Amino acid sequence: VLEPVLQAHPVAPAARAWRLQPQVVVALLGGNLAFGPVALVNAHRLALPRRRYLLVGAIVAAGLLGAVLLALPSQDGRIVGFLVWDRPCAVAAALATRVLQSRYDRAYHFYRAGVESYSRLLPVGAVAVSVAVAVQIVLGVAA
Amino acid sequence: MSDGGALARRFLELRRPERALDALGESLDEESWALRAEAFLQLGRWDDAVESARRGLAEDPSDITLLDLLALAEAKRGDLAAAERAIRTALELLPDHPLLLVHYAHFLLQGGEVDAAAVVAREAERVAPDDSSVAGLQIAYAYVTGRDRDLEAASRNLLRVDPENEFGHRLLGVSLARRGNVGGAAEHLAEAVRQDPTDRGHAEAARAMRIESHWLLKPLWPVRRLGPTRLWVVHVGVIVVLATLAHAAASVSSTAGVVMWVILGIYLVAYLSLAVFSWVGAPLVRAWLRRRPGSRRRAR
Q: Fewer C-beta within 10 Å: chain A N or C terminus?
């Protein structure tokens, strides 16, 4: 019918994925430091093809880089500038990765998950946000 | 077919895989491996299903049924590359087999390869236009590509071809729920449960929809109808329009301006009330309805 197209697809891990929408909340509350690891782990759990996984990684990196670059001209100091821009950049990255992964998420839901079969993001998200906020407080005090 | 094999097949038709495995006993012929693989698939024991299919294929590498079962089991355990290899081997032997084409299209969709899936789906439609598995494939395609209107049409098409198809009822229920029609959704999900009371997914979906169709959750209708993103866009649009009108009215007469600002205030209060209800009130109502005695039993 056509050439093989699934040969580069990774084997899906047994761990269940998280829903994409709550990841935006993690980005909003914890910024890039909280959102980045969550997004990358989830992309792995959704078994994204390698190229798409790298794109998610690039967007996560771009979110962090964007916050750093926007902080450079800050008159209050670069760390304060970073803390100001971190969350908006993380939310933008979360929305972009959501668009990038939505098809794979729907396929996951249709074929692998079904009703109430996503993993709960709340415990992991709470830890990620707590760690990120702790790091940001330390950075803020240092500034 | 041996007596054990015939009995096992009957049990598999009745979705009693444990009894099917008992009926097969220690039988080691080629057909028993296929039945065993099918039983393990029904039990959700993907690794055992793969192993059984491979044992059977060791005796006859060109057995279409075993290749198909191997592909299904590999896809279920998440190895789409292995699933594709197995199904393509089967398709090389029988290129126009509609079920093989449908399964291949499903693997492609599972991997998010929607364009390739569309090519294979067209081929399946050409070979068997009125096959219920092809109609089921259209549902999967609409779901994965996020086309809700197509999902409803595909579900109705599947029910036209096979009126008792449980997945047709379930997916039509899901698509109606997405359009805000929770009453219609609850009916179709209940029908899916009636068709297959053993399916936990149907029962959970029906139960969730029964809860969503409760009158206490009726205020969520705008959220269901439009979705959170569209509702937010509508909300911002209404505020901008009302604020602009209020400014314009205030320049004409102070009374008209006050009236417009009051209308804007009422709208804001209504919207904030809906937001608070959807964030706080609705989860509490759902939790209460879930804990009510007998709610799980009634869903079945």
A: C
Whether residues A8 and B81 touch (CB distance < 8 A) is answered with yes
Within a 13 Å sphere around the CA of B8, how many CA atoms are in the beta-carbon half?
25
Q: From the centroid of its chain, how far is CA B92?
A: 30
Nearest CA in chain A to B174: A115
Question: Tens of pLDDT along A79-114?
Answer: 878 888 899 999 999 999 999 999 999 999 888 765
Chain B positions touching A106 (Cβ under 8 A) are 143-146
Buried (b) or exposed (e) across B159-181, using 16+ Cβ within 10 A? bebbeebbbbbbbbbbbbbbbbb
> How far apart are alpha carbons A83 and B97 in whole angstroms?
59
Which chain B residues have a beta carbon less than 8 Å from that of A7? 81, 84-85
Do residues A12 and A110 touch, judged by C-beta distance below 8 A?
no
ipTM of the complex: 0.86
What residues in A contact B77, CB-CB < 8 Å? 11-12
Distance from C-alpha of B156 to C-alpha of B146, rounded to nearest angstrom: 17
Report DSSP state, residue B219: G
Model confidence pLDDT, tens digit, residues B158-214:
898 888 888 889 888 888 887 778 888 889 999 988 888 877 778 888 888 888 888
C-beta separation of B217 from B286 below 8 A:
yes
What is the full DSSP assignment across A67-84? HHHHHTT-TT-HHHHHHH
Q: Is the pTM here over 0.80, yes or no? A: no
Hey, what long-range contacts does B193-197 have (CB within 8 A, 24 or more apart)?
A: B193/B299, B193/B300, B195/B164, B195/B165, B195/B166, B195/B169, B196/B15, B196/B166, B197/B300
B79 close contact with A: CB closer than 8 A:
yes
The predicted-structure confidence for B62-102, as pLDDT tens digits, reads as follows: 999 999 999 999 999 999 999 999 999 999 999 999 999 99
- Portion 105-134 of B in contact with A at CB < 8 A: 106-114, 116, 119-120, 123
**Percent of chain A topping pLDDT 70:** 96
Any idea which of A128-137, B27-36, B53-62 has the lowest mean pLDDT?
Answer: B27-36
Residues from chain A contacting residue B140 (CB–CB below 8 Å): 110-111
Among left, alpha and beta (phi > 0; psi -120 to 50; other), residue A13 is beta
Taking the Cβ of residue B78 and every Cβ of chain A, the question of whether any pair is shorter than 8 Å is answered with: yes
- What is the token pair recorded at A137? 């407080």
User: Which secondary-structure segment (H or E) carries B179?
Assistant: none
